[in-house]
Amino acid sequence: xxxxxxxxxxxxxxxxxxxxxxxxxxxxxxxxxxxxxxxxxxxxxxxxxxxxxxxxxxxxxxxxxxxxxxxxxxxxxxxxxxxxxxxxxxxxxxxxxxxxxxxxxxxxxxxxxxxxxxxxxxxxxxxxxxxxxxxxxxxxxxxxxx
Length: 146
Fold this sequence. Notes:
Low-confidence stretches: none
Strand content: 35-45%
Structural class: mainly beta
Radius of gyration: 18 Å
CATH architecture: Distorted Sandwich
Distance between the termini: 42 Å
């Protein structure tokens, strides 16, 4: 049993609770999230997909919404994926269809993954200089991968 407990409330009878598909020693990093209603996602559109669940995170944890690789390869990606510990409303997954075809989302489909993260509150301090590092200011494409 995990030391992190997250309360989950079904807001609609059809809602499925988040679930890890693999829970062994090399189990999943994130839990599957499910659509609580069906819809058609037209090409180029962005919509919030209801999950029909609300969650009660402890103050020490929140979550990040991540793509499912099987959908991402088809051009379906998630956006706006931070769930703060104090949020108690329905979890809705913001989904964008980058493909040229309409995509049907059925009730009960796995639409995203939920990665639980520990909340760390950093202190941001203005400085006059930033220290050197091997990577330096190298950004997009700086590793040579294209």
